[in-house]
Structure formats: C-alpha cells, structure tokens
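Ticket #4471: structure export looks truncated?
Reporter: QA, pipeline team
Priority: medium

Steps to reproduce: submit the single chain below to the structure queue and open the exported record.
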Amino acid sequence: WVSNASDPGIYGIRNDSVVAVITRGRGLTSDICRTLLVHNHVLWAGTDMGLNAIRLDRPGYPVTRYTAEDGLGSNMINTLYVDSTIVYAGTPAGVSLFDADRVRTGEPCELLLLGVINSGRELIEDTAHLSLPYRQSNIRFEYAGISYRSAEIRYRYRMLGLDSGWRETAEDFLDYPSLPSGKYEFQVQATNRFGVRSVILAVPFVVATPFWKQLWFIGLEVVLCISMFWLFLRWRIALVRRQQEQKAVQSRRMAELEHIALQSQMNPHFIFNCLNSIQQFVFDKDMMATNEYISGFARLIRATLNNSTRALITVAEEVEYLSNYLSLEKMRFKNKMHYNIVLDPDLDAETNLLPPMLLQPYVENSVRHGLRHKTAGQGFIEIRFWREDERVIITIRDNGIGRKKAMEYRTNEHIEYQSKGMTLTSNRIQMIQRLYKCDIRVEVQDLVDSLGQPEGTCIRLSFPTFGGEKSAMVLN
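Actual output as written to the record:
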C-alpha cells in the first residue's frame, strides 16, 4: 500500500501490478495521505483532512472516517501507531489516542418542528387541523435536526400537493410565500454526517378555496350565464318578432290603403254609368221612371259608400246590393231583360262573408256587353250562391251575345264608354289575396248551343269561407 504527493489516493500493488485504488470518491477524507499503517487487516491512513480506517478483509474495502469532530486534536495526521486496539495519532495539536473497538461509528438523528408561521401568526399548536385563508396563503416552517456527534446536518423536503420530488437544503427553515388553494402535506427529513436519517416529519394543512372557485359558485355562474343567454335570446327573438310585426302592419296598412284607392277608382266609374242611365231617362222625358231610377240610384249609392269602407260584408248584404243594381239596369233596358238571384239553403247568408264590390263589375259587364247588344229574345242573368268544400261558390250566367261578339262592339265604341271595372276588379282580387293570404278563383266560360253558336257567358267565382273568428279579425 503506497501513497505519494503527486498521485491522489492510496494504491495497492501486488507483483508489480496495481490491484486497488482508494480515493476520496471511495470514502477517504482526502486524497492527500501523509502516513499509512497496516494492523490486523486494517489499513490506517492519515490525511490532511482526518484519519481513515480501511477494512482490508471486507469486500470493497469499506472506510470509516475520524475527524476533529470525533475528538481528534486536529484533522492533520502526521504519524500513526497501533497497539492492540489502541490507536495513536500524531497531529500538530498533539497525540490523540482512542480505542477503535469502543468508538461508535454511527449516531442517531432526530428532527424537531420549531415553528409554523402564517402571516406573522404562530400556528404550531394547531398543526393537526391547519387551515390557511385564501388571501393569506403564505407559510413558513422552522425545524432543527439533532445529532450530537455530527456538526453537519442536511435536510430533504417536499410539498405534496405542489410537487412530489424530494429536494435538499442545509437551511433549517423553508418559506412558501404564496400557495394556490388545495390540500397539502409538508414533509421534511434530517440526515447527519453518518448518513443516518431521522423519521419523516409531516405537517398536513389546507389553503381555503375562495367562494368564486368553489363548485357551487361555478355551478351558479353556469346557471346564470345560461339564464342570461336565454333571456338575451328571448329578448332578441321578441325584438325580431316586434320588428316583423311592425313591418307586417305597415305592409298591411299600405295594402289596405291601396285597396281603398282601388275602390275609390271603381266608385266614380260606377256612378258615371248610372248617371248615363239617368241622362237617358231625362232625354226620353220619362219623369216617373226618372224619379224611380233616382230613388233606386240613391239607395245604391248609399250602399256603395257604406260597403266600400268595409273589408267584408255578408252574403245577404251582397245579394241585396246586386238586386238593387239589377233592378236599376232592368229599368234602363225597359224590361227587356230580367234576372234571378238564387241562394242555396245550405249557405248561411248572415255569417258567411265576401269582399264587397267584387261581383257587381262582373254583373255590369254581362249587362253592358252581353245583353246590351242582344237582338233576339229577352236578356236574362242568373246569379247563384252555394257552398262547396268549405268554399263559397258564385256563378253569374247570362244569355248574351258572348265575349267574342262583344269585343267587336267594344272596339267600335268611344273609349269613355268602355268599362274599366274588370281591370280594377282583377287588381282588387290580387290585392285581397296578398293582404289576407287567401285564394280567390275566377273562371270564365263561353256558352254555346248545340250548333256551336254563342249562347252567353258563365263566370264562376270561388271564395274561401270568411266567417267566425277569422272574419272578426279581418273586419277589425
């Protein structure tokens, strides 16, 4: 066993070969050896940092170290002598001796908790149920390791709930300035210079969770958010509906105004035709007929003004109106025509409603263009009312000259005498269908005899059932 100043450690040489190297990494107090001594399978090595006992009879050559902390006068070992179990070590501070068999190579290590401090408050007396407010989540641990023969004590610690890995420190305190809400357990363990560890000291504690992070509050927030979104959605839907309703009201009002405008266009046209008839009676100097016609005309004008301001009238009112009109036309034609109005018993004339002033232009057209130019036989108009498949059906049938022949007469007449009623009526029907979202159908059929000669015209009008709740809504 040799050692020198230039090569670190101790070398074991056998048969000119190095068979072992013992250095500080293997447990020596220092790589600089000043003296060596072998006694009873123990290699004693004195270094400048203490005395080492190397057991040569054990695998790995375990090392036991002795320093000034163990009672040596100095860590600088200059010479050695062993007598039986007594070891003599020469140091600059004198000779130190001890019994190698009686020296303890281990020392128990204890760990004490000295303080648990939270925001200046000492809480060590309540570590069993330690709870920190969420606004004061700082904590300081103070502890001390006790090992009488070990001047150097190190500590390892961890904070379960924050991390699980062990960390080492030489400080006898630890500070955690701010911890998030949750459950924790602080663990610390002391280790002396002999490698002996104390029991693990554990301090469980809780950092309170603020109410806005608790489950009930989060659930309440979710419910409030859903409620607010639902209220906003309802408000938005209501707003859109109000806007749509306002737009619909405006559109309906515009349609009603246009409807009234069309009616106001038709009324002067009808009055013009009636005045022509009165003028004809005056020219004929038939005062009785003139007075009777004027009285009937006054009743008709009053009914016209009354009906033109209403959205719907009953079938009974429409029948009365057409009867008054046809009676005047019969007088004007000097009884060369007659008429018949048939009302089906299954049709309730008092509850079923119709748009006013729609049938009269068709009847007028039959009289003026169908019967006016009829030369053979007496003119005849038949108007029928009945109910079919929840609809009111009306037919206006005449035995006039037919549409084709009537067109020839109309092209030869002055423009003032040509009727505008059919065009206005067609526009009114389109307007009513848009306004009330209903379906009004008009069919015109040319009638012919067995030889294919014109025999008149039949107009079929089909109206939806305006009655009950719907009619009340419309009339309002």
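Status: closed, not a bug. The export was complete when the record was re-opened. Leaving a note from the reviewer for reference: The first helix runs from residue 215 to 283.
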